[in-house]
Design brief:
It is an enzyme of class 2 (transferase). One of its GO terms (molecular function) is ubiquitin protein ligase activity. By secondary structure, the chain is an all-alpha fold. It has 22 helices and three strands. Strands 2-1-3 form a three-stranded antiparallel β-sheet. The protein is elongated, with a radius of gyration of 25 Å.
Amino acid sequence: MDVMKSPVSLCTGVTYDRSSIQTWLDGGHNTCPATMQVLPSTDFVPNLTLRSLILHWSQSSQSNPPVLSKQQLLDSIKKIEKTAENRLDSLARIADFAKFSDENREFLASMDGFVPTILGIMKNVDDIEVLESIMTVLDLIVSEDKVKEQLHRLVFKCDGDCLSRFVLVLERGNLRSRTDSARVLELIAVETESQRAITDKQGLLFELHRLISSEADSLASGAGLSCLIAVSTSRPVKKQLVRFGIVRTAGEILSGSDTVGAVIEKALKLLEMVSTCAEGRSAIGEDETCVAAIVKRLMKVSRSATEHGVAVLWSVCYLYRDRTAQETAMRNNGLTKVLLAMQSDCAASARKMCGDLVKVFRVNSKSCLASYETKTTHIMPY
């Protein structure tokens, strides 16, 4: 009957204190203690609503005002800057304040010294819960005016290794904080130098790929894909993603029956980027599941998704002339799909690619028919 210190929820929806459920999972259990359901994922997310209620209850029981005012916010910021004591609770209060309204986020983002203070703490702590809370706060304000530029400068230009903290959260954090991390990285990867810094950081690219390959959560997958799209601008990075298995991962995403349209669009966009290098085209051509899924999604999701899909097929089937990919596309009604796309409102460049693909598919179709007729002639004894 103790009050929870850090309430977190499993995928079953049941909430536990973080230390208690972590002990349970570390003991080798793979079930929810309350429901005994087998857990498809052992990730947990902070129950911020309950944490806020506990905080408010605690404040009320001590005759403190339950609502965080701007002055209380300033006090909380001073506390996290001066001492590590109750730092997690102070960060939770700041996050709750930012979530409450656009006005609060603007106020927080406009405060002189707030972002440097948060980044200063971030560079000097290894406590995963503190880092998770920092990622939540940064994700809430990074879109505000000047915060993005300030965050970019502090992460990439100043002393200290902030990127290692992103790796740590992506490795050990809960699903929510890993998603927040990917979103923040995407928004600060604004030019070649920062993109290279992110992709060169040991383990960071791998963890972003793991985020999209190990989670069924559309927000996590979407954030991971968006970040990879933002940073995968050079051939070495694309080759590295191919080695990680990005083609298979994207194929699985496209094949999923419950995958949302926005995630499908991003997966096709990333495949289009990967298909601009020979290693990517080869990997796509060898993955029949991926090629079939691309064809399946043409004219089914959005104009952008169709354009990305056509570009991938054009690179592999027309430019690279991959015979296996051509045959896989044909078996999955690729010619009809491409003809439909050619008559749609897609961009002119995509329609031209469709024309090239139609020629290839028709030649391949005639070749297959001639081969079939030859085999039929040879096996007829009379």
